[in-house]
């Protein structure tokens, strides 16, 4: 049975409060990481970054998400990144593929499957390796 549990543990709440105290710094760092990735990979036609079509709104970078062209195997690319010390993570797989949700998916979801097949997230976490290390590793892979 599908169910929801939105309760937060005390530990999660404490971490959340601590992060909120420095939210501006965290978001500034994540935006910077995304800009560095875009600069390094700007000439790589195999990688597409998430578009920012928002007008009169502030874009918040929580994850740096990219899509690989179909000429690349996403899992092999992620493995190469991990072997070089970059913890890239694949997109989630479609909910329509999960047995518990299949009754709610009455139609095929080809776009969701395509995005899931091609997408992954580059790291934007606080203890990220140095930007120069990441530049060096990404330049070896492109």
Describe the structure.
- The protein is α+β, with helices and mostly antiparallel strands and 142 residues long.
- It has a single domain (23-141), classed as Alpha-Beta Complex (Aspartate Aminotransferase, domain 1), CATH 3.90.1150.
- The protein contains 5 helices and 4 strands.
- The protein has helices at residues 10-20, 23-41, 74-83, 110-118, 131-141; strands spanning 47-49, 64-68, 89-90, 119-122.
- It has a 4-stranded antiparallel sheet.
- The model has no long low-confidence stretch (mean pLDDT 87).
List the keywords.
alpha+beta; globular; 142 residues; 5 helices; Aspartate Aminotransferase, domain 1; 4-stranded antiparallel β-sheet
Summarize the structure.
With 142 residues, this protein is an alpha+beta fold. It has helices at 10-20, 23-41, 74-83, 110-118, 131-141, and strands at residues 47-49, 64-68, 89-90, 119-122.
The CATH architecture assignment turns out to be Alpha-Beta Complex
Count of separate structural domains = 1
Number of strands: 4
What's the helix count? Answer: 5
Q: In order across it, which strands form the biggest sheet?
A: 1-2-4-3
CATH homologous superfamily placement: Aspartate Aminotransferase, domain 1
Beta content: 5-15%
Distance between the termini: 45 Å
Give the C-level CATH assignment: Alpha Beta
Q: Which spans have pLDDT < 50 for at least 5 consecutive residues?
A: none
From N to C, what is the helix and strand string?
A: HHEEHEHEH
Helicity range:
40-55%
